[in-house]
Amino acid sequence: MNVHWIVGVHPVAGALDNDPARVREVLVEQGARNARVQQLAERARTLGIPVHTRAREQLDRLAGNARHQGIAIHYEAPPTLDEAALEAAVDAAGQGALVLVLDGVTDPHNLGACLRSAAAAAATAVVVPKDRAAGLTPVARRASAGGAERVPLATVTNLARTLRELKQRGVWITGLAGDAPRTIYETDFTGPLALVLGSEGEGMRRLTREACDFLARIPMPGAMESLNVSVATGVVLFEALRQRGVAR
Ligand SMILES: C[S@@+](CC[C@H](N)C(=O)[O-])C[C@H]1O[C@@H](n2cnc3c(N)ncnc32)[C@H](O)[C@@H]1O
User: Fold this and answer.
1) Is 198 assigned a ligand-binding role in the annotation?
2) Known binder of ligand: residue 218?
3) Domain range for residue 13?
4) Are residues 43 and 101 in the same domain?
5) pLDDT digits (tens, 9 = 90+) for 216-246
6) Does the C-beta of 200 come closer than 6 Å to ligand 1?
7) Does the beta carbon of 114 sit less than 6 angstroms from any atom of ligand 1?
8) What ipTM did this prediction achieve?
């Protein structure tokens, strides 16, 4: 069972609004005076979700490094996809398949921000390697502002193999790299598509890069070496949506 703690006013509000059936219980900090926290607790009671009061230390413990603001929920997340479920989701999405692949993003804030953008772009799935990458910790969930609950996450053991599988299913793979010869504005992002971004320090690994059909860069006229991976994710996802005529 994939049960997690989600903490903080905004993520909790998102879960109560979008997926109340997945919320098992709400914990509110003893003596919490934040009006938003009280409103959320009241909303949960109206939805028939048990609300309990707990000492601040208990919320601190389950939140890890994330800021809980006096409220936490026990949330039954949709299961992460394995390779087979990812392929089924891509097949079901057909021409509209839009997959975000993160090759070893290690900062949970960056993972959360990428999930937020992917959810906003209605991506089919986000793919991450099982090892040497940030997982869906409370910090990542909180940084995703509810995105982690709205876009399926696939964890795979061999990223290069997964990219080859996607290719066989008709998905075009574009890797994002600052040294690519062509820009994202010169790259065709219509049809089934996977966008691959590299890690904070090293970028894409060699085998991942070699598995890409195309490489594309986001032009940067300023004197900076690269963009933050979550910023690059947002830029390229929404350029893809623009080319695909998605303007809602
Ligand atoms: C912080 S950057 C990594 C920088 C790393 N030193 C490198 O050489 O790739 C993290 C990821 O964001 C993406 N990225 C950042 N800036 C980019 C740009 N201007 N064009 C394309 N991708 C970019 C790439 O996928 C990159 O691997």
Assistant:
1) yes
2) yes
3) 3-76
4) no
5) 999 999 999 999 999 999 999 999 999 999 8
6) yes
7) no
8) 0.98
